[in-house]
Amino acid sequence: MSASLDSGLPRPSQTTTLRQRLGELRGPGTAPRALDARALAALAANPGCRRRALLDGAGVDKAALASRLGSPAPFGQSQFAIMRGNSFEAKVKADGGRELLRLLGVEEPGAVSVPDLAAAGPQGRTARTALALREATAAGTWTLLDHPLVALEVAGSPVYLEPDAVVVSPDGRWTVVEIKSFPMIDGAADASKVGAAARQSAVYVLALERTAAVTEGATVAHSVLLVCPKDFSNVPTASVVDVRKQRSVTRRQLARLIRIEEIADALPEGTTFDVEGCSSAELTEAVESVPHAYAPECLAACELAFHCRARAREAGAVETLGRAVRGELGGLTTVDAVLAAARGEAGDPEDPAVAALRRARAMRQEALDRASAPSEEAGACR
Fold first, then answer.
1. Are 97 and 70 members of one domain?
2. Please, where are the H alpha helices in the chain?
C-alpha cells in the first residue's frame, strides 16, 4: 500500500469491477458520497476500523445510515456558518490572490496567474489541475490555484481532494493554503482546531507530492498557510503551520489500511447498505457484518460513532474506556473479564495486566480500610 501512495491512479480497466462492487453496496442508483480530506484524516487516525474504511470507500452516506439505525449524529455546520466561511474565503482570495500572497509575505508579486481549472468530472478536473501545476512551475511566476482537485489512492481506491487553494512560487514551490473561519486571537487560534486543520492539510500535501514527483523542478512545502479572521473581525491573518509530523503519521496510517476489495470480499453474499431500499433491521445486519474499531475519539469524527458505541457497551468492550486503557489491559477484552481478574476469580497471575489489576484492587482496599479505621476507633472511645 505504501508504494501505491506514490504511484499513479489505477487505469479504468483496473477499477471497473471494484466500482461495480461498491455501487452494489451503496444501492442501485445511489450516487457515491465524496470522501474529503477531513474524513480521510479521521480515517487515517483509526486505520483498524474496517467498517469506516468500507463505508467511506463505497461512498455510503453515513449520516443517513446512522439515522436509519436509530443513532443519528449531530454533525454538520449551520447555514450561517457556511455563509460566513464562504464570505471570508472570497475576501481572502480577492484582487486576484494578491491579499493571499501578502499573507505569505509577498508584497509585490507582479502579475499573478489564476488559471481556469474547470473540467468535466473529477478525473478531468484532476488532470486539469496537474497540467496547471506543471505550467505554473515551468513559467516561474506567482500562480494561485483556486480550489484545485488532486487525487490520492487510499486502500486501493482513488479519493479526490479539494484544497482551498495552492500557491505556486517562482522557484517551483507549491504551498497548500487552508482557510478557516475560526478566529486567531492575539496571533493564536484554538489548539484543537489548528491540529485538525493541520491533519487535514497533511492529506493535501501527500496528494500534491504524487503530482510533484513527475513535475520537473517542483517541490511541495511541508508547511501550510493557515488563514483565519483576526481577533473578532473579518480581516484575514495567517500563520505558517508545520505539518511534517501530521504528514508522516497520516502516510503511515493510510499504508496500514486494508484494501477495500478485501473487506468487501469478506462480506456475506448480497450485503448492501442501501439506505432507501432496505429496512432498519436489514441495515443493522449489514453494518454488523463489518468489524469496527470503536474508540471515544470517534464521537468527534464519525457519523456512526454513537451506533458503534452502543454496540461496544452492550458487549462490555474495554474499547469504550479509551485506547490508552485498552492498550494497558492486554488480552482482557471485556469489562467483566477485567473485574474478574482484579478479584482473583480469573486470569493468569503471571500476566502483567492481571497482576497490576490485583495490586491496584489491594491498594484500594487498604486505602478504604485506613479511611474507616479512625471513625471506628472514635466510636470505641465513646
1. no
2. 12-26, 37-45, 50-58, 62-68, 79-92, 98-103, 121-139, 191-212, 244-256, 260-265, 280-288, 305-314, 323-328, 335-343, 352-381
324-369: per-residue pLDDT in tens? 888 888 888 899 999 998 998 888 888 898 999 999 999 988 898 8
Same domain, 108 and 200: yes
Domain range holding 44? 12-75+259-328
- Same-domain check for residues 198 and 318: no
* CB of 59 closer than 8 Å to CB of 19: no
pTM assigned to the model? 0.73
Considering the domain architecture, whether residues 98 and 230 belong to the same structural domain is answered as: yes
Dist. CA 156–CA 327, nearest whole Å? 29
Q: How far is CA 318 from CA 188, 256, 358, in A?
A: 37, 23, 17
| Rounded Cα gap, residues 305 and 318, in angstroms | 16
Looking at the 3D structure of the chain, how many domains does it have? 3
DSSP 225-294: EEEEEBTTSS-EEEEEEE-HHHHHHHHHHHHHSPPHHHHHHTSPTT----TTTS-HHHHHHHHHTS----
Identify whether residues 107 and 211 lie together within a single domain: yes
Structural domain contains residue 52: yes
Whole-number Å distance between alpha carbons of 190 and 114: 32
Other Cβ atoms within 10 Å of 231 Cβ, number? 12
Provide φ and ψ at 127, rounded to 5°. Answer: -65, -40
In the chain, the percentage of residues whose pLDDT exceeds 70 is 92
The residue whose grid cell reads 482496599 is 365
Using CA atoms, how far apart are residues 148 and 165, in angstroms rounded to an integer?
7
What is the number of other CB atoms lying within 10 angstroms of the CB of residue 24?
16
Q: Which domain-ending residue is among 295, 312, 328?
A: 328
124-157 residue pLDDT tens: 999 999 999 999 999 999 999 999 999 998 877 7
CATH number, domain with residue 187:
3.90.320
> Is a pLDDT exceeding 90 seen at residue 371?
no
